[in-house]
Every structure is written in C-alpha cells, then in structure tokens.
Amino acid sequence: HMTPFLHLSNKLAERGHRISFLLPNKAIQQLQHFNHYPNLITFHSLTIPHVDGLPIGTETASDIPLSLNDLLSIAFDRTRPQFEETVNTTRPDFVFYDSAHWIPEVTKQLGIKTINYNVVCAASIAIALVPARNVVKGRLMSEAELAELPVGYPSSNIVLHGKEWNALTFISFPFGENITFYDRITTAIKGCDAIAIRTCSEIEGNMCDYIGNQYGKPVFLTGPVLPEPAEEKLDEKWEDCLSGFEQGSVLFCAFGSQYILEKDQFQELVLGFELSGLPFLIALKPPMGVSTIEQALPEGFEERVKGRGVVWGGWVQQPLILAHKSVGCFVNHCGFGSMWESLMSNCQIVLIPHLGDQILNTRIMAGELKVAVEVEREENGWFTKESVCQAIKSVMDKDSEVGALVKKNHEKWSEKLVTPGLMSGYIDKFVENMKELVR
Ligand SMILES: O=c1ccn([C@@H]2O[C@H](COP(=O)(O)OP(=O)(O)O[C@H]3OC[C@@H](O)[C@H](O)[C@H]3O)[C@@H](O)[C@H]2O)c(=O)[nH]1
Question: What are the alphabetically sorted keywords of the record (predicted)?
Fold first, then answer.
C-alpha cells in the first residue's frame, strides 16, 4: 500500500505541497526512485519492533506470508510513539493513513485533520467493511453468513460466488492485539475527518456514495493516481530477452507483492504457459515450501521452454514490461495497482484473483467493464494448466471473438481514462476538498 500512497504524494508535491512519509528502512530503499520530488517529499524511517513469531528483520507485508500479517500489525501498532514524535515535530495540516486505527486519537489532540486513504477498490470496503455488515466474532463465520450482503449494498454483480465468500473470513480474525480486522478498519474509518478512495466515479461511483452514507463522512476520490511514466530504463537483461519476439506476442505474468502460490498451483500455472505455445516471462515468488524457482519447476520444464519462456523468482519493473512492444498479454492477480496498470496498458488481460478484493476487482474488470477474462477454477477453488491455457488463448488467438470483444472494450476504457484533464482533474478536486476541510 505504500506505493500508491507515494504516487498520491507525488501528485500533491507536484502542486507544491510538502509531505513527510513514514515508512520502514527497506521500503525507503525500494521506493526512493518513485519519489519524484525529494525536495518536498521527505522519507522518515520507522523502526519496526520485533514481535515473537515474525522472522527477524521483518519490516513489510512482502517479507512474510499472509498468515503472519496479524503479527506484523502488532509490530506496526508499536510504532505509535515514533509516529507521535514525528507528527509533533512536523505538525502537518493532514495525516493520511489506512489501517492504523489509533492515528485519529493522536491527531485530534493536536488539531490535525485526518484522511483515511483506501487504496483497494471501493467495492471491497462496501461489501465487507461498513457498519451495515454483520460480523460474528470469536468463531469462524460460515459461507452463508459471509454471503449476506450489507443492507443497501449497491450491486448484485460485483459480489463473490459460492466458496469465494470464504475469502472474507479474515474480517473477523484478529489483526493486531485484541482487535479484529473488521474492527480495526471500521474504527480507522470512523475516526477520520474524510474518507479518500483511489478510484473514480466513472467505475465505482455507486460504491463510493454507499460508503459515504454508511459512515456519514465526506468521500473524496483521487482517481486511480497512476504513476508518471518511469524515467528509468528497462533492465538490459529483460530488454534483450523481450525484444527478440514479435510485437504483442509475449505473455507477462506477475502476482504483486504478496501472493505466494502452493507448489502444485505454481506448477499448473507455468505448465499452462507452456501449453499456450507462446513466449512468456513469469515473475513470481518461489511457491510455498521451496526457496528457489528452480526447485519448484516441473521436471524437464526448463529444457522444453528454453528460448521462449523464463520464470524469474524476483521483482521486475512491471510498468516498463507492460509498456514493452513485444508484450501482448498480462496474466495477473488483479491487485488494485495491477488492475489500473493493466487497464492503462495495451495488453490483453487474464486474471487469476486470490484475495477477496482481487476477486471483486476481477468482477469489475471481467464482469462489468468486460475488458479481461478470468481463469476458471475447479469446484475446490484450484485452477488447472488447461484452464490457464484456455484463458490465455481466448484473448490471444487472432480469430477469437472474446479476444476481440475485450480488446475493443479495453481500448474504449483506456481512452476514457486518458481523456485530457480527467486524472489531473481528480487530484485538483481532491486538493480543493482538503482545503475546504481546514477552512
Ligand atoms: O515484480 C513486480 C511485481 C509487482 N510490481 C508492482 O507492484 C505493484 C503491485 O501492486 P498490486 O496492487 O497489483 O498488488 P499487491 O498484491 O502487491 O497489492 C496488495 O494491495 C492491493 C490489493 O488490491 C491486493 O489485494 C494486495 O495484495 C504494482 O504497482 C506493480 O507494478 C512490480 O513492479 N514488480
């Protein structure tokens, strides 16, 4: 979530505002090059205290599996004294935060306004994290309980189906000391002066209105806040690897910063790419239980795809790869950042969502906007190499009707989103809204 907070900071700095950005050391190193206004955006290093059960040196969610996020929240809450010290010395007009539910307690005493900035789709807040949602504490909620939509939820399409509802069980789990995820986020939102959401009314207007009514708070939209085109160049290694292929022929796959596949699913995925017969670059973390990609690849795979396929176990420059002329299809998890990046790219889009918000993003992309296809899963929730291959082929085959339809809709939406002034208009209005809040 730190990346989209920094993208917004850049837009605010572009308009002359100063920002103090608190984040752990490792994240400072990773995000440094996204800071386009180092004279106005100052990074303040946060020391993340150790909590038993977390690997030594854990600083961010990308260092750990999802199951340890609860402990990371405890560590995160223990940074409160560091936050208090910084806010006392810097005395900003506003504090932006998302899940640090205790921030309004600190800022209210100092007369500082707070903005609860949500960088996931509005639908995921509206469906799971509003006062109207029934949440049972102290036990696992059933699929039927989770499937009960909050009263007034504004869509019957942007919903989960069957077992997918279980992706929301986490809302009633502990997420920090003596607090559930649901209580944490709803407390964080109830305490703010205004809710901000990284979305646009063209796509999620109804969801945003619903959230505003539920909390009785103003809702400010920032639009998708896409980063400026990167000044850095694509690493030579990838430039060389990609440029040898025909325009628009390469499949690129990445699943964001958190998603770690089971080994069997990892193998089905790469075998699906092999089956497609197309060139590919897959950048994923090694799956559960193994430490390197090589240990995880199916037998004989590397030999068979030599010269046309690479599976890489580290971070790559996703926006630059998506912009490469040889890349024609982006297979991704539909994390909110990747959703916008894929929408703004020229690539065909294939989605394999995992977490609840990613499934809702997928419903928007594949169901409402019809700009993408989703990989089908079996009854048990798993996908097969055949389903991966079939989804890829459905958008990449030259004579596919589905491929032509999603391409046409995708072009229509990306044209709409790049309409001159649309994105900057969102930020200008957002700044105006903030000014009104302190007037
Ligand atoms: O190798 C990579 C992978 C990812 N990235 C970048 O990292 C960002 C990933 O962000 P996403 O929102 O897509 O995905 P994450 O999984 O990291 O996000 C997390 O927060 C947003 C939620 O919607 C997701 O459910 C949650 O997992 C993108 O900006 C992408 O360009 C890289 O630059 N290189």
Answer: Glycosyltransferase, Signal, Transferase
